[in-house]
Amino acid sequence: MIDTSPSLALVLVVGVLVAVGVYLLLERSLSRVVLGVILLGNGVNVLFLVAGGAAGGAPIIGLTDESEMSDPLPQAMVLTAIVITLGMTAFLLAMAYRSWQINAHDEVQDDLEDRRVARRAAADQAAFADADTEQTTTLDEDAAEVRDETGEPDGAASGAAGPDGRVPR
Amino acid sequence: MSDLTWVVPLPVVLPLFAAGLALALWRHGRAQGVISVVALTASLAASVVLLVAADDATLVLDVGGWSAPVGISLVADRLSTLMLTVSFAVTLAVLVYSLAQGVEDGDAETPVAIFHPTYLVLTAGVANAFLSGDLFNLYVGFEILLAASYVLLTLGGTGERIRAGTIYVLVSLVSSVIFLTAIAVAYAATGTVNLAQLALRLPEIDPGIQLVLQLLLLIAFGIKAAIFPMSAWLPDSYPTAPAPVTAVFAGLLTKVGVYAVIRTQTLLFPDGRLDDLLLGAALATMVVGILGAVAQNDIKRLVSFTLVSHIGYMIFGIALSSDAGLSSAIFYVTHHITVQTALFLVVGLMERRGGSTSLDELGGLAKIAPVLAVLFFVPAMNLAGIPPMSGFLGKTGLLQAGVAAGTWPATLLVVGSVTTSLLTLYAIVKAWNKAFWQAAPVELPAVRLPAGMVGPAVALVALGVSITVVAGPLFGYTERAAAMLRDPDQYVASVLPDGARGEGLSDDVALAPSDTDPQDDR
Questions:
Q1: Total CB pairs under 8 A between chain A and B
Q2: Which of A25, A74, A113 has its CB closest to that of B298?
């Protein structure tokens, strides 16, 4: 029965790498985020090695005794993951450089349209201007324009023209 | 059944080879276009062949002759082939649209040299994800399509695209890391990443570890599929890409996430432990997504929010854990891929005709572009679920399944679905009103819409309408697919015929599984 309990040192390494990676991932500058991505990716790669069981000899028949071989499958998966992370990191760095060229900074920016909608919502304004959502008259002015049966000439109370120029009759 | 397993890798291999060829011919834009169209048409034909063949029996290919689970296997069952066919149809239409746009703009907007290879790599990644029979191959498929999508999203390197692209790349990287962690956990617990063997071994491991694995996978796929609360990245990044790119992303990438959720939920975790959580997430996605759409003033963002919202419908169907619910969810996915892509293509046409995507600046399009008005109206009403179109049929199926389930969360979701449908109608009608019926604030300049761009939009809208016509046979197909998915033993039996090994070479290489414990069994 192979002993599959992981070594504490490796587990601690994974924990530290992932923690530091997540911390850097939450930074504003894209360069630091890229560092965080690399550390996080490498943490998960070491996790794969932990998942593969204890280290051993090269997994080639005839070279190592079969009970002392290390597991080749996680190593293959880790290689694939490393290469993928390599490509993504290169692309992210190119994007950071492009952002630097355009904006003179490489900060990860917020969603501006979302902010605008939220701001207008907080100020209780409509999210968009529309022909029938524009408030051009107040309730009092509207009321003054409406005919009623009191016999008074309308608008006698306010006496002023509405904002659209019409004098209430 | 004649041995059609050689057709199984074609949807992956043809676009990849064509991508290499297109990259080699980067100076010849015309040749690139021809290569892309030929490759995608051939892949579509292969997908249709697989669609018909998979209805009889699941097709399994052990890549390289190494038997599963020693080697990688590609599995074409009813769900995979249906997703493949719809995806390739949609990508082909969008490719023709973008070819016409490139011709029209004289390559001023997009650097066409990299567009075609990247587009083909994207379709190859999507096909690999759909066909994969292996958790790690699924990860590779995801990464292929994600890498291609990063390039397509930031095409041209303008400021707005870099801003949105950064968000998209980082969120996708996080989802990839979580997926990788889940694979590591699965391997540590069971000693395999092959889906069929995982289905056999997972019931034997500690239920706590099963739950951890299920949650990790759901979070990773949930980020990709834009399930609330992991959906905020989608309306931020999708609208900034070029119109055909947004159309393909909206139609395909989120649905790959939904496909992965279906596959893992039905095959690996059939006991339905997290169904209530998924129902809650579905309701939140539906409602929050559509309320976001109602608040938008930009038509591209509005349609992006409706995309998020309707993902909730598909998760609703999956979370019901019944044949009817799953069948309706698969039907809804098929309908939604077509309709959402058609809608984004039409929005691209509107942007071209009207010069802007802001609803404040558009107006009066019904008078100056009546064909465009019809092209918008049909998929928009389809999305909102107006009878007799496929959106209505899909939603009716989901509502029937929800009512049949009878539990109070399902009933709550039925109410939520109807409310979301009404709110979708409200958002769509508002957009229709402002863009097509109300007068434009400023006179719009006359822009010609080339037939090459209108044609694919018409074709996709017609495809969406045709789903209504063939809804009967399609529902029959999805019901058979759902019945097969809900019985994981069928999947396992097709990949591992004797319960331990697939066909192909392996007996001399690895130890027999009966004598040793799982850790040795590779």
A1: 105
A2: A113
